[in-house]
Amino acid sequence: MGSVEPIARLEGVWKRFEGQPSWVLRGVSMTVRPGELVLVMGRNGTGKTTLLKIMAGLVEPSRGRVLIGGLQPGSTQARMMLGVVLHHPLVYDELTVQENLSYYAGLYGVYGYEPRRDEVAEALGVTRVLGARVSSLSFGWRRRVDIVRALIHRPRILLLDEPTTGLDDDTVESLLDMTAELSKRGVAVVSTSPRRLDSALERGYRGLEVVDGRLEVVSA
Amino acid sequence: MSYSRIVSSLWLLVWKDYLVDVRSKSVLAFQALFALSSSIFTGYYASRSVEPLVALGSGIVVVPLFLAVFSAYASMVREAERGTIEGLRLLPVGPEVVVLAKLLYIYALTMLQAEVYFLFSVLFSGYSPPMLWVEAWLAMFVLYISAAAGFSSAIVAYTGGRALALAVLVIVLTLPMAQVAVPVLSFVMAGGLLSPAQAYAMMIMPLAFITIFLILARYIL
Predict the structure, then answer these.
(1) ipTM entry
(2) Fewer CB within 10 Å: C terminus or N terminus of chain B?
């Protein structure tokens, strides 16, 4: 594993938002290798989401460098390697689940996408609600649809921002099983959580915690 | 990215905005109501005015401006309010394609409603301006204000500004075009033929603005 090139590399990342006196992140360095499972824990407001957004190329670091597959995260090629699930689902309320997935599939260049043949959609039960408008779904279901969306183009690294929010225990277990399965196929998963997720650590997640803007190892 | 990929991405982005608007109904219904009711006012005023050209001309400048603001709000600011703009930022198609798709949609929607307004106001006024020339003028003017509205809404979305800033920005950005377009409109409505210089100015201004918008897309989306 040690010789494998990292899929994500953060080198001395610092972040302070404009007008804010304190640093959110203070020199965070991290490498994520293909197939690795990483859980970033920390209380609300500690900078977990900022870290994830910096990796996704949605937020610019104040200092330091981020590389996804050796590329800048904002580049087109890097975006194809990234699957991102944010705290709010990136699906459209007025569209049906099927329409949302077809829309994103087309934009990611996945032609002929058929949700019924998508094993992630099947595993999360999303195939049962394909015809439903997203506005009629609960937050938990929207979250599931959003996870399917993020994986539609078979990314090499999946970033999940507090993915368990709004999900029942069974779905959380399914989600963790699914990420463990993705890991076996070489997909790296970086997930955040506001609390210690023992069920994730049991599945082989490397536990990190954001404390005072720095990453501390909880479990290797 | 290949040409066919760009075209299919543009189509998907426009199609999505269209579906969202059609299904949320309120935006389109409000715009249609605004265009129709404005046309009744303009038509009535023009039919009784001693200067129907001025009445029709002022309406055709002001009403599409408001329609462009509504369309831009629906297309771009709504994405920011709902958080789906981050989905657009993550797409592997590049910000220029996203911005161009937004612009096309704003233009199509504004042009459609501006046509409704213009044709009905002419119908209600009973006055017939030189339609072909005014239509050509309208197509260029709406293209410019659509670009101005799209650019302004992107700025508002980027800075997290209030929707009021959108209207103010659009009006300020439209002033340079208005200074060229309003005299041209008066001239055309009075039955004059456009000079090559006037036609060139009417075409170059929207295209220049669109080019600037696309260059800046990377920084504001």
Answers:
(1) 0.88
(2) N
